[in-house]
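Need a sequence for this fold. Nothing fancy.
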């Protein structure tokens, strides 16, 4: 008599046997497992003692985020036992997910078989994620003997040495990415952007995660490819030299002391983006904006530095909280956060979509020139929030109609 295999989820699954000769297995969906592990069991009918029966219990997909620790279980029925069980660990994570286990590679026994592909669907109702937001870059740790020449949009200063491209890519000709860790691997052209994933030098997480890193990098490459198509690089009018390119630094999520990064982002922060610019007063323009609008860079700065940066938070539960399938969107019930949208948002900040309107020192941005407000004292007339004050420090200031007691809530 043939051996027959089927799943049995102890105490929680309903198994329906249609007949003795031919079994049809029917599984219920597991709802709300309230424990960190559950028992998964496989039963065998009519085991053959003379010939052990083997079967693999495989998980479809990566198992992220709740079953990411799962590895294929190989069960061997080598005696008269009719049931083999194993523990399935369930990670605490955001969002609701369905996972499918299946019987594969059945061999041995007396012609052991499952009548059809037998699946077990497990529904995990996860935690409700907090509403993430755009964050702030913390200041770096640097050699205090060095001169601060560069700043980000949050006012953090950088010695030039801390934003230089690593030597690994500064040979001639300069490489547009780190070897084996760029956008060429996906056959995606990022136009005038060179994308450097620093995880590929300093960590094995984030954009260099062995499971998800490549998919995450592909999302970033796609975003900058679209930006390069959408925003044309201005030309200098000559053909003598190649136009300058925008070197984009994709910072690691983890602490990396080699680059002065000594803190992680807050748990509620999804990401952060910023251009680098010269420390100056008045209206500020980041290096990416300058390059895109002139195809060149001020001669006082070197070509082998980063011009802007993006940092995405992969720490803690956020490591498994992203959707990174290009061409489709996460469902609202999944609880997953769309990495594509997050990178687009931070990339736009890097391109100078940023405001310093709360500045009290006259340090505003080019973006601030375009902000308008209807003031209570001049109803119905949108006026600029800042105005130029020629010959008068700080050269740009809040519009003169703003009362001293007026506050902006930006």
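Here you go.
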């Amino acid at each position: 008599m043939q051996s027959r295999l089927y799943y049995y989820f102890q105490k929680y699954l309903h198994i329906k046997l249609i007949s003795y000769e031919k079994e049809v297995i029917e599984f219920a969906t597991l709802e709300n497992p309230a424990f960190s592990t559950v028992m998964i069991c496989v039963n065998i009918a009519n085991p053959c003692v003379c010939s052990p029966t083997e079967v693999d219990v495989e998980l479809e997909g990566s198992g992220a985020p709740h079953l990411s620790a799962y590895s294929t279980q190989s069960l061997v029925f080598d005696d008269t036992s009719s049931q083999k069980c194993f523990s399935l660990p369930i990670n605490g994570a955001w969002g609701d997910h369905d996972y499918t286990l299946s019987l594969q590679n059945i061999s041995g026994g007396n012609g052991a078989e499952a009548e059809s592909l037998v699946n077990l669907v497990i529904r995990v109702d996860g935690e409700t994620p907090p509403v993430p937001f755009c964050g702030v870059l913390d200041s770096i740790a640097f050699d205090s003997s060095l001169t601060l020449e560069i700043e980000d949009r949050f006012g953090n200063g950088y010695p030039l040495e801390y934003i230089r491209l690593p030597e690994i890519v500064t040979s001639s000709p300069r490489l547009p990415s780190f070897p084996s860790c760029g956008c060429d691997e996906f056959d995606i052209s990022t136009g005038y952007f060179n994308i450097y994933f620093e995880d590929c030098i300093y960590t094995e997480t984030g954009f260099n995660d062995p499971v998800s890193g490549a998919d995450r990098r592909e999302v970033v490459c796609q975003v900058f490819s679209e930006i390069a198509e959408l925003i044309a690089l201005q030309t200098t009018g000559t053909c003598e030299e190649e136009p300058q390119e925008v070197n984009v630094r994709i910072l690691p999520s983890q602490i990396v002391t080699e680059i002065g990064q000594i803190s992680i982002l807050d748990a509620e922060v999804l990401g952060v983006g910023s251009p680098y610019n010269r420390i100056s007063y008045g209206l500020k323009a980041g290096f990416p904006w300058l390059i895109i609008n002139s195809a060149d860079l001020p001669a006082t700065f070197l070509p082998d530095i980063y011009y802007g940066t993006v940092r995405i938070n992969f720490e803690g539960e956020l490591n498994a909280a992203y959707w990174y399938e290009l061409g489709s969107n996460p469902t609202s019930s999944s609880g997953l956060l769309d990495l594509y949208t997050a990178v687009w948002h931070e990339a736009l900040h890097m391109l100078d979509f940023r405001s310093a309107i709360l500045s009290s020192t006259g340090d505003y941005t080019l973006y601030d020139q375009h902000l308008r407000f209807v003031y209570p004292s001049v109803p119905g007339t949108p006026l600029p929030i800042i105005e130029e004050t020629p010959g008068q420090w700080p050269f740009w200031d809040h519009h003169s109609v703003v009362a001293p007691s007026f506050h902006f809530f930006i």
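For context: Helices lie at 199-202, 213-230, 287-294, 339-350.
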